[in-house]
Amino acid sequence: MNAPEATNRQALSRTQPLKPQRWPRTERRQARIRSVLARRQPDLTVVLENIHDPHNVSAILRSCDGVGVLRAHTVYSIEEPPPGAFARQTSAGAAKWVEVERHPSLADCYKRLRAEGFAILVTSIGPDARPLYDWNLRVPVALVLGNEMRGVSTEARDMADGAIQVPMVGMVESLNVSVACAVCLYEAYRQRTTARDYECPKLDLDRLQALEEDWLRR
Amino acid sequence: MNAPEATNRQALSRTQPLKPQRWPRTERRQARIRSVLARRQPDLTVVLENIHDPHNVSAILRSCDGVGVLRAHTVYSIEEPPPGAFARQTSAGAAKWVEVERHPSLADCYKRLRAEGFAILVTSIGPDARPLYDWNLRVPVALVLGNEMRGVSTEARDMADGAIQVPMVGMVESLNVSVACAVCLYEAYRQRTTARDYECPKLDLDRLQALEEDWLRR
Which pTM does this prediction carry? Predict the structure, then answer.
């Protein structure tokens, strides 16, 4: 990987000014970035539908980074995204490492995800939802998380491929949305790690190299 | 269960004034409470060590209720508990259903948990921590969660039976504390539900009846 990478770097430095580097380009950092990218799961993602609390957005992005989500999706059809929540310098740094793509509508978002081969599952507490542990989460899957008060919209549920429910045996009927997200993502992690899915990179070499170069500049 | 319960109720009504009932004492509600109590796990708990953000406390208590934690523990040795976070009317209702016991010190808390047969595991990102999925969480276990900035204290770690780590394959080094808590609690739930631990009540009949009567008044 060394030769083409060096060429890329030289090419970039000729055509565009380098941004001020916040971190030194050490071998250790490069190795860490390479190792993280090798375990990124481009076939696991989340859709945040009108999630308005920046604490929740921050916690969700940290969990995404933790299990290797490459890119998250948002739809803000009713309200604006919480200011700063997706900025690269917040979220204890997670927004720096998880790409976030905003879609103009849920239909656009679903269309894009389906074109990329994702099954779309809403997280729900409705009676039609199947328990988390019944699902195979090793397939390409997008988990839709709804607004803190309203949950996922009827539209989101109707257009989805299914509904997933985190089991609860208590008196309260729902979990915090960032908690529900993490419990689902970590079940995907558990299934995938058991099947050794993290041991071989899922991104192709060109993409890995481009991302490595990009991340080294962050 | 009906006869002794009726007697209890009469006895209570003679000796103390009834609190205003927020909910009617319907058969449906009684059945729900009974069903929830039958699945409470008195051998699964958490210790909140100086957790200061009320959002986190609220999310943690909701997760506790969700997996059947009967009683949670707190130690506030450095700061005060966040105002209102443990009040019965907040936390989307979860503080109403999860008993919270505050201890004057970590040593007192650990002593009490050990007397009750709990293994004590701190959640940690340190190199000595073993991954979550390697642990048997069907045994009586208390999970210690540390402050948002500092993590668990050295004292908490040194006195514990072990350290548990939620695996992370990303760039960020830690999860939100309420997320880490939920991922651990739901792994305990998954292990216990696979082993059918939720199918037989773990509380004895006297305790179930007393709690049912108490909960009906909440």
Answer: 0.89
